[in-house]
Amino acid sequence: MAWIVLIVAGCLEVAWALALKRADGLTRFWPSVIGIGLTMVSLVLLSLALKQLPVGTAYAVWVGMGMCGVAVFGMLFLGEQVSAPRIFFLMMIGIGVAGLRAIER
Hints:
Layout: H1 2-22, H2 29-49, H3 55-77, H4 84-104
Helix pairs in contact: 1-2, 1-3, 3-4
């Protein structure tokens, strides 16, 4: 169950970062409220997952999901640069997170 909570927290990590992008430096009310609200929910879920998971692995998964998710969303929907090095390094993040999970057992 802790892994499911952590995955939801990671997805919210992506959502709040994108909401804050739309908030334009917290000058737009609703995107700011949504971004800050999602941040709080994501942190609460992370803290719940940390009750059962190792902090290093859980935090790496949470941050890795956020970084990769936002970068991929940006490339697919926001016109951000798609390049082989960028994709390579995103894959390296995924490999690192998977490696931490694998050695945890």
